[in-house]
Every structure is written in C-alpha cells, then in structure tokens.
Amino acid sequence: MSDLATEENIKECLHDLYIEPRRSLFEWSEITGQTPQVRLAYPGEHLASIITGVEGAGTAARGDDLSDGTEVKSCSRADQLSECNNCGGKVLVWQEECSECGSEDINIKTDSHWIISITSRKELNLYLDRVPRVILMMFDRESHDTDEIRLRAWTVDPNQWYYRAFLTDYFENNYQVKSNPAPCNLHPEKYDFYMMEPHLIFHADIDIEDDEVYIEYWDVDDPKKEPMPTNTANLDQLEDLFSEEELHDRVMDLPQEKRMEYLNSRDRSKLVKLQKKDYVELFPHIPEEKRGDLKMKDKTLKTMKKEYQR
Fold it and tell me: For residue 75, what are the β-bridge partners?
C-alpha cells in the first residue's frame, strides 16, 4: 500500500471527520432538536482514499471520486431518525422516549441506503463502462444494544453481471418510464447487494466514548467475498435452487431429534413441506456455487432477461 494507506491515517481521519463532528452534532442536537446524523459523502471519499491508498481527483462529486476512476458511495445507519410506534412522532437517536407522547416504544430505523444517480444514458454508461470499481461504505451498529459504530467498505466489480443488469433495469424500466422517478437505491445486505458479489475490503469498530478505532479487517488486494445469507432470497427461489435430494441429504446429517422434525411422520424417507425458515436453518448461506443460479426478482429485469441472466 502507499504511504497514504496507514493505520494512523485511518484513525486520525475517523477522529477528525467522524468522531469529533458527531460529538458536536449530538451536543447541538440536544439544544436545537435537529438531527445529529453526520453527512458522509465527502468524509467517505477521504476514507476511501486512505483505505485504498489512491488519492482523490479533487472534483467535489463532479467527476471521479478517486484518481483511478473509482466511484465511492457512503451511507449511515448509525444515527438515523427513528419513529414512535405509539403516535408516529419522530425520535432522535439520543432520545430514549418520544418527545410527543412519552412512549418508550420506539421503531429504530436502519434503512439508510446507497443512492445512485442515473439521469441519462451517458451516466449509465459511465457506471457500467468507465468506472473501474465501485466502493460501498456503510456506518452502522452490529446491534441496537451497542454504542460502538461499525465502518465497513466493500468493492463491487462493474463487469459483474448482476450489477450491470440492476443499473440498466433501473434506467430503462424506471427512470425512462416514470414522470417523477426516484433515484436508484441499493440497500445494504439485501438480495440485490449480495447478488453483486461484494468483497469486503475494510472493517473497523469505532468506540465513540473512548475515541478508539479498532481495525478488524483491511485487505484491498485480496478482499473477502461476502457469503449470501439464505434469508435474502424468497421461498420460490429457494425451492428452485435446492433439489429434494440435496435437502434430504442435509436433513439426514442432522442430530436425530432435529432430523425427525423435517421428516414425514408416516414416511421417514420423505421430507415435510419446507418453509423459508427451514431452508435458512438447513443452509444459513447460499452455497457459493449456486449464487450464479439465482436470477433477478420478478419485479425487475423485464426486457433484458435473456441478455443478462445466465
């Protein structure tokens, strides 16, 4: 890696551009009642430069995010505005109860996502053919019970078939046909995300209170391919993906008591009708050799199925 990509730089950058601004925003949020969420577009690009060792192009979102043409997208689920389940009032991240009705029944929102702006065929072609890689960065919490914030970054290859189909489908079947189309939204850790075969290049845990950054993983040259959780597919897809023989063999490997739950009580050689939760229990992740057998969901890829599906 270059001199730019150092652990010291990562920690200093997170301190200066994330931890300290977040602290200030939280303090002012309690005074003003405004959201304390840190906006991450430009800090994300700084961090991407340090993680990859590639300097920026100085375009301020009007050109290449990194000097090698890499596109960087950032989002945060760490400090989202939540909602009261009792009255529907908005609840700030530091509030333990609704300021409108006093209820502690809070729906903690974690639906922030990456927004990809495609407003012309030229922009689409840029994402498909000019960008050498896409880096997706996300700040979130591993669970609601922790104050630590997790930063992860993945890379996606623009030549990957699902990525190309997803963006093309958005432009041709959404942007071009609707009078007021929403931007192209890519949701972290959902079906579309995993089908793009993302590779993890960076993971750090940020202890805000102690101002500590713990780097758990960092490898740009040999990143980790993210396994695809089975629960991201629907039941119809799973039924097509696994043969009865494969399922039967998996069930027969289970301990006897558990095995009996899956077998027909009258004919122990046959499986009962499996639900989605059963597939998830039997195969927590889609076997890697089967990911390519999955296709885009029915709601998308209308005109391009033959071109993009394998």
Answer: 138
* Per-residue H/E/C for 228-244: CEHHHCCHHHHHHHCCH
Tokens representing 239? 């039924």
Tally Cβ neighbours within 10 Å of residue 147. Answer: 10
The class of domain 7-77+112-226 in CATH terms is alpha beta
- In the chain, which ranges are E strands? 71-76, 82-84, 90-91, 106-107, 114-116, 134-140, 149-156, 184-186, 199-207, 212-218, 224-225
Would you say 120 and 31 are in contact if contact means Cβ atoms under 8 Å apart? no
Report domain extents, the chain.
7-77+112-226, 232-308
The whole model's pTM is what? 0.87
**Cα separation, 151 vs 170, whole angstroms:** 28
Beta-bridge partners for 155: 135, 199
pLDDT of residue 310: 43
| Pair 56, 67: CB distance under 8 Å | yes
- Amino acid 210 reads D
304: confidence class by pLDDT, cuts 50, 70, 90: very low
Q: What angle do CA 279, 283, 285 make, to 5 degrees?
A: 115
**pLDDT at position 162, please?**
93
Is 157 within 8 Å of 201 (Cβ atoms)? no
Using DSSP bridges, classify how beta strands 199-207 and 224-225 pair: parallel, antiparallel or unpaired. antiparallel
Q: What does the buried/exposed string (b/e) look like for 54-88 if buried means 16 or more CB atoms within 10 Å of the residue's CB?
A: bebbeeeeeebbbeebbbbbbbbbbbbebbbebee
Instruction: Report the candidate in 151, 134, 34, 15 with the shortest Cα–Cα distance to residue 93.
Output: 34
